[in-house]
Write a structure and sequence with these properties.
58 residues, mainly alpha
């Protein structure tokens, strides 16, 4: 798995956390939900990366 992809997915997770926090701080439920969704997508991509890595090492 390319390191660039892993960094991109980690950045998506951080962006999602920031959106969620800003949504909470500003009482913006839509932004908060968007941040949570971004985090979920990033987590799924990271899980896919881990599966690919597992097969690459075998």
């Amino acid at each position: 798995m390319a390191i660039g992809d892993k960094a991109k997915h980690a950045a998506e997770d951080v962006t999602g956390k920031a959106k969620e926090a800003f949504g909470k701080a500003t009482d913006n439920e839509n932004l908060e939900a968007e941040g949570k969704a971004d985090q979920a997508k990033a987590d799924a991509k990271k899980a896919g990366d881990n599966v690919k890595d597992a097969f690459d090492h075998n």
